[in-house]
Amino acid sequence: MKLFENLIQEKGLMSDVIRFVTDKQLKRKDLWAKFNEPFTTHEDCKVENWNGEDFGMQLRWRGEYFGKQMRGAALVYAYTRDEELYEIMTDSVKDLLTRQDELGRFSTYDVDLEFDGWDMWCRKYVLVGMLYYYEVCKDEALKKQIVEACCKHLDYIVAKIGPNEGQKRITKTSPWWGCVNSCTILEPTVEMYKRTGDKKYLAFAEYIISEGGSSDCNLVELALQDEIAPYQYPVTKAYEMMSFYEGLVAYYEATGEKKYLEATCRFIEKVAKTDITIIGCSGCTHELFDNSAVMQTEYHENIMQETCVTVTWMRVLRRLYDLTGDPKYIDRFEISGYNALYGSLNTENNEQLNMWEKKYYEAMAFDSYSPLYMNTRGRGIGGQLLFASGGYYGCCLAIGACGVALMPLTALVQRDDGVYVNLLFNGQAAVKDDDGNDVILRMETNYPASGNAKITVECAKESRLTLKIRKPEWCEKMTVNGVNVEESGYYTLQGTYANGASIDVQMEMALKAHYLNGKIAFTYGVLALGSDEQKSDRELQKALAIGEKISYQLVEAQEGEIVRIVCDLDDGDKLLLADYQSCGKKWLSDKPLMTAWFNLVK
Questions:
Q1: pLDDT category, 7, cuts 50, 70, 90?
Q2: CA–CA–CA angle 2, 62, 166 (5° rounding)
């Protein structure tokens, strides 16, 4: 686990998004109180009643909400240093600490029903939330209390789960997805070992790995064999599988055993090839790996492209980038952030649909599912559960803040060999030059609407600085101070800069057409494009008559849009396109239809 230095102060799109999520969601004290209640009421293993219908006893996952949102909030705070948010987080942590039972458990399940359903998954997220908060906590006494409580919590699990007589195997702790959900406790278990040095936690991590991460297959061996794609594995639940592989990365960090990093890298490459769509998400069949790279052009009646999958993909990519420095992970990360993640923001404050009750609930900050072909947003609240005391929440709502925080926290990274500009941003960054002196980098850009940026160096005296600027994979032509950058990856500037010296970056953007399965989609720079019935008078289903060379014009973007483009079609018609993330946001209107893939004239 790693929190990032607050290097940049962004004054554009990324900060606008963080402000929206912070105000709409993270500062709501009532929500934080709801997250903690189930650890006392144990309502995740009670009889459920939906709209008057008795569903009997259900084993649910309310216990995940605290940890998922606390991780996101801690990352947001690491970026914003918002003290009001910090106090709200602190109050929630202190409250949860009072709910630890006499056995040391933080569980939303009764003892006689524990280690079934989503119990291990929820216990995992308690550790995740507490450990992320620990990294920003300023109270040493509270930090000590957190570690002690987490140790008691994990010690109970280690005593009960394992291969020995009287213990329950971890691959028998859930009826869902081959117990991959339970096995994702690997990551915070390793982080507890890193934090405490207690070797029983490392031994427990090794036990989980020895079980292969699933009762249905050995996820480690399948990835190392590298013969089939993840959608062909016996278990295909995208979010949980990626979370398990992130645990393997954590184990590599703790032990240096390279095969676990290699397994994760091979898995990620397979996912990137077979299951990532034009918006940077996966799963056209619910939240499952399903060869989405091919399936993405088809109409899907059911939910697809889940926000939990988007954020987890971004998390694993960022972690692999930290270890390898390979810019391909940032290329993929950026696509997911600007398209799938930002597209999931409920910026229109629409009420949201309960898929089971077919009833609309209070608007929250995130939508759960992202359509790609002739469908609508707002199709359901992922992982939605009601609280016994009233109100509701869901899995994608809880995880979204993590993703939006990772965007500015990844935009600029200080590494031992220089300052890496991963994403162009509008604002300033406090960095160290090659001699360890303080330098401010001030950047002016409207990226991703255009690829132009001016970076100004502010320093007390001449500064030796190594600056590495990423040329994205999508960019065919880039210049830095007029010098043409030939290869994708990082272009290194190494020199001495006086106060006020500037660096000019130009990334050429162009409309690109992508053809698949007899359909067409468009990108402009990093942005996937789309259209919706609100924006366009042209019927979305009408097939496009379009040649190899597409004539188009950039026109003024409307409120909520990043770019707006009008294409000239071969039959004299016009096609209006806008950035995907802005399309379909008015899903309660009488014209909610949107699409990223368009039909072609045959």
A1: confident
A2: 85
Task: Supply φ then ψ for residue 478, to 5 degrees.
Answer: -140, 140
535: CB partners within 8 A, 6+ apart:
558, 564, 576, 578, 583
Count CA atoms closer than 13 A to 315's CA, side-chain side. 30
Q: 41: which 2 tokens?
A: 């009421």
The C-alpha atoms of residue 509 and residue 385 are separated, in whole angstroms, by: 43
**Which residues are CB-neighbours of 453 under 8 A, at least 6 positions away?**
424, 443, 444, 445, 447, 504, 505
Check if the beta carbon of residue 361 is closer than 8 Å to that of residue 503. no
What confidence category does residue 51 fall into, taking pLDDT thresholds of 50, 70 and 90? low
- Report, in angstroms and rounded to the nearest whole number, the Rg of the chain calculated over CA atoms: 24
- Where do you find CATH 2.60.420 in the chain? 416-507
pLDDT band at 256 (very low <50, low <70, confident <90, very high): very high
User: In this structure, what are the phi and psi dihedrals at residue 11, rounded to the nearest 5 degrees?
Assistant: -125, 35
Torsion from C-alpha of 354, 355, 359, 363, nearest 10 degrees = 30
Residue 309 is predicted with a pLDDT of 98
The pLDDT assigned to 47 comes to 77
Give 150-166 pLDDT, tens digit per residue: 999 999 999 999 999 99
Strands 519-524 and 594-595, sheet pairing: unpaired
pLDDT (tens digit per residue) in 359-389: 999 999 999 999 999 999 999 999 999 999 9
Pairing outcome for strands 527-532 and 519-524: antiparallel
Over residues 82-95, the mean pLDDT reads 98
Alpha-carbon span 496 to 494, nearest angstrom: 7
For the ranges 42-51, 137-146, 384-393, the lowest mean pLDDT is seen at 42-51
Are 577 and 353 contacting, i.e. CB atoms less than 8 angstroms apart? no
CB atoms within 10 A of CB 355: 15
Of 444, 439, 482, 490, residue with least CA distance to 460:
439
Q: Which residues pair with 491 in a beta bridge?
A: 469
Tell me which fold the domain 416-507 belongs to.
Maltose phosphorylase, domain 3 (2.60.420)
DSSP string, 344-387: TB-TT---EEETTTTEEE---SB-SB---SSB-S----TT-EE-
Contact 215, 179 (CB under 8 A): yes
What is the DSSP code string of 398-417? HHHHHHHHHHHHHHEEEETT
Contact assessment for residue 136 and residue 76, using Cβ atoms and an 8 Å cutoff: no
Which is nearest to 328 in space by CA: 487, 446, 103?
487
Name residue 484's beta-bridge partners: 479
